[in-house]
Structure formats: C-alpha cells, structure tokens
C-alpha cells in the first residue's frame, strides 16, 4: 500500500471545508440576506429555496468527508494503535462529526417544517413576528440556535484535522535532513 493518502485526505478535507463553509455562509449570508427581504412573507420562503439548493451539495460534502475520514483511519491504523495522541484526536473527531451530522440533519428537518409556512409573516428567517404561527415560531426559535452549531463544531473539526497533520510529522524531521547531507 502506498504511503501517500492524497485521495482520501482530499476527500476528508474538501468535504469538511464545504460543510463548514456552506453552513457558515448559510447562517450568515443566506439567512441574513433573506431576513432583509422587504416583504415579511418572503423571508422564510427565500431562505428555504436557498437551503433546498444547498442540501445536495452538503450531502455530498458529508459523504466525501466520511469516506475520506474512514480511508484515513484505515491507512493510519498502525499509527493510531501506537500513538495515543492521534488515537484520542480521532476519537474526539468521530464524536464531533456525529454531533455535526446530527445538527445538520435536525436543522434540515426544522428547515422543512419552516418551508411549510412560507406564506406567513416573519420578522426574520429565524425570528418570528408577533403574528407568526406557534409552529413556525417554534421551528424558528430552535433554528436560531441550531444554525450556529454546525459551523462551530465543523470549525473545531478543521482544527483537529490540522492537529492530526502535525502529529504525522517526523519528530526531528528537519534535524534528520540536515545530518543526512
């Protein structure tokens, strides 16, 4: 087996980058822009259209990250067995990945519920107005918090992935290269 893992590492990193970036852009850009719509009845509708278009890309990003992560674990099983720090990092990443998958899925469920109320007035995408139905207001209130969970957790996953890359460096690699010449 090759010592290079370019394909699985790329799937892992690009999937995570798309997942993080898309969720952050959606919370800040898409929801923020839709909340600025002049017609209060268009706010949830516009955001729902954008999130529906993003859903297949997010699913592909999740799949790429998962396939890449599984490939990296398989390729590094000997290192994980012998390096406690790498093993702990992988365990934490696995738990946080599951948390982020759960938050992404639940956010999608809430978004679907919100999309069923696109004809209602709303103060913002995740902010009900005084005449918003209780069902939409409940979904919006939950989504207001949840929209930040996925980008926050995937942000931590990016940091842990960088840490894993550092853990793979030879301990005195630069010193060895100087003494071998």
UniProtKB/TrEMBL annotation:
<protein>
    <recommendedName>
        <fullName>DUF4149 domain-containing protein</fullName>
    </recommendedName>
</protein>
